[in-house]
Design a protein that fits this description.
Elements (H helix, E strand, L loop, with lengths): L16 E3 L7 H17 L8 E4 L2 E5 L18 E5 L12 E8 L2 E9 L13 E3 L2 E6 L4 H15 L10 H8 L1 H11 L20 E4 L5 E5 L14 H12 L2 E4 L5 E6 L1 H13 L10 H4 L1 E3 L17 H14 L9 E4 L13 E7 L2 E6 L10 E8 L3 H15 L6 H9 L7 E3 L6 H20 L1
Helix pairs in contact: 1-2, 2-4, 5-6, 8-9, 9-11
The structure holds iron/sulfur cluster.
Length: about 450
């Protein structure tokens, strides 16, 4: 199954709490894992499943236990919490309902920036549904991380919309009442010191693929799993290879929020042996992956997901190889670039923060988004609407070529696009009813091109 809906840290307790997956045995990462686990426990309902036993039309047994925290309604199915440290955005922390970013000094988490109101699901054509990046609402001491998340859940419990499923997210509550109201409410409910959020440097995307030191004597090894699908094919026997690695090295596995997995607790000899096994079974090690493939993700969509209106996971590998060829043709094979694809607008593969994304509209037809970036901290724009998947590469070609010719040193595709269209503000929201901007972008590209030609002529 796709690792997207699986967990990194705490699935045994609450499937919606995620922590960044690398098993570093450092104080900062220990704090992240422990906090995520404690949040999962703290948000777990206290009651067991409600049950009644009836015999011959008469109720014999009933469990009407009281739920002390949630009252009559649990949190909605989609209420997600993430925990990470500054510098590691493997879990796309801005896409969660509530989150904590640990601020680290000398390997200690000295405090958390508290995030609220993220979420990437929306509905096509409905302006009152939107994908949104979480707001950084406060800074707190590390020992109050769990309580801060519980306070946020309590505000949602008391004011959240529970009658309309499409509005049952914290982001809509914050939108309805205003961010200032939410921050005031949060502060009023906290019985600990709350300061304004700290300004952080841009948080980098880390995929933790390949070998890394886990502690002084052990290593971990991140393995790219395309779209989270572990399967043997004629070209590559991924399932067999993983089984062999686990049997030979007796290591543990952690699933990541990027659909990949990490083998943990390895000796340096075992790291070498893993790479040998991968080669033996036709699997490319991370140094051989192009950036377009390495940073790609697709949701399960058809035939697994009942919400899907278009292909995603089954169509993505072929599309990504075409995108890879296009990017290789302009000489930028190794330039980090995110591509994501989903079979409907619910956004499970987090498409709206990618450099390039396809979101299913109906069979074979997609919205094309451009302008996010690897850091996952900016929304893309709807670049072209209702396009056929087979036309997408041609539609992207002028932009990719201009990027190659005009980019500033190390400028990613999304950053280049944003500079061309002159958007200096980081976009935080994308509604279900966007206007495509391809004509505007083409015009800007032409202008940029002619300016460059004039400069060369001079
Ligand atoms: Fe999520 Fe939609 Fe993909 Fe289903 S088709 S996994 S709901 S994005």
């Amino acid at each position: 199954e796709s690792a997207m809906t699986t967990l990194a840290a705490c699935g045994d307790v609450c499937r919606n709490v995620m922590a960044s997956a690398p098993p570093f045995e450092t104080a900062a990462y220990e704090t992240v894992r422990r906090t995520a686990h404690e949040i999962a426990v703290a948000l777990r309902p206290a009651t067991n499943a409600y049950h009644e036993i009836w015999i011959n039309g008469e109720r014999q047994v009933s469990s009407e236990a009281e739920e002390p925290f949630y009252g009559e309604l649990y949190l909605p199915r989609k209420y997600k919490v993430g925990v990470t440290v500054m510098g590691d955005n493997q879990i796309d922390i801005y896409s969660y309902d509530a989150g904590l970013i640990g601020i680290v000094e000398y390997d200690q988490v000295i405090g958390f920036n508290v995030l609220a109101g993220g979420g990437l699901g929306m509905s096509h054509g409905r302006e009152n549904t939107f994908a949104q990046l979480a707001h950084e609402i406060a800074y707190i001491a590390p020992e109050h991380g769990v309580e801060a998340i519980r306070v946020i859940a309590s505000i949602y419990r008391d004011f959240g919309n529970r009658s309309d499923r499409k509005q049952a997210r914290l982001k809509y509550l914050i939108d309805d009442r205003g961010l200032d109201w939410f921050v005031d409410e949060f502060r009023a409910r906290c019985d600990f010191n709350v300061q304004p959020a700290r300004v952080l440097p841009r948080i980098a995307n880390q995929d933790w693929l390949g070998p890394h030191r886990q502690n002084e004597s052990h290593w971990f090894y991140g393995l790219f799993v395309e779209n989270g699908r572990i399967v043997d094919t004629d070209e590559m026997q991924l399932r067999t290879a993983i089984r062999r690695i686990v049997v030979e090295s007796n290591c543990d596995i952690t699933l990541t929020a990027q659909q990949s997995l990490i083998f943990t607790g390895l000796t340096s000899h075992q790291v070498g042996r893993i790479e040998q096994i991968l080669r033996e079974y036709g699997i490319e090690t991370v140094d051989r992956l192009s950036a377009a493939v390495r940073y790609s993700m697709a949701c399960p969509a058809l035939p697994t997901c009942g919400m899907a209106v278009a292909e995603s996971e089954r169509a993505a590998p072929d599309f990504v190889r075409k995108l890879e060829s296009l990017i290789e043709s302009v000489g930028l094979r190794d330039e980090p670039l995110t591509f994501r694809m989903t079979g409907c607008p619910n956004g499970c593969a987090r498409p709206y923060t990618a450099d390039i994304a396809l979101v299913g509209r109906r069979p074979g037809i997609y919205h094309l988004f451009v302008g996010g970036r690897l850091a996952g901290d900016r929304m893309a724009d709807l670049y072209a609407a209702d396009i056929k998947i087979e036309d997408t590469i041609d539609i992207l070609r002028p932009l990719v070529q201009s990027w190659a010719q005009q980019r500033r040193p190390h400028e990613g595709l999304g950053d280049f696009y944003q500079r061309v269209v002159g958007q200096s503000e980081r976009r935080q929201r994308l509604t279900g009813k966007e206007e495509p901007c391809i004509t505007h972008v083409q015009m800007q590209l032409v202008q940029l091109d002619s300016q460059t030609s004039r400069r060369s002529a001079c």
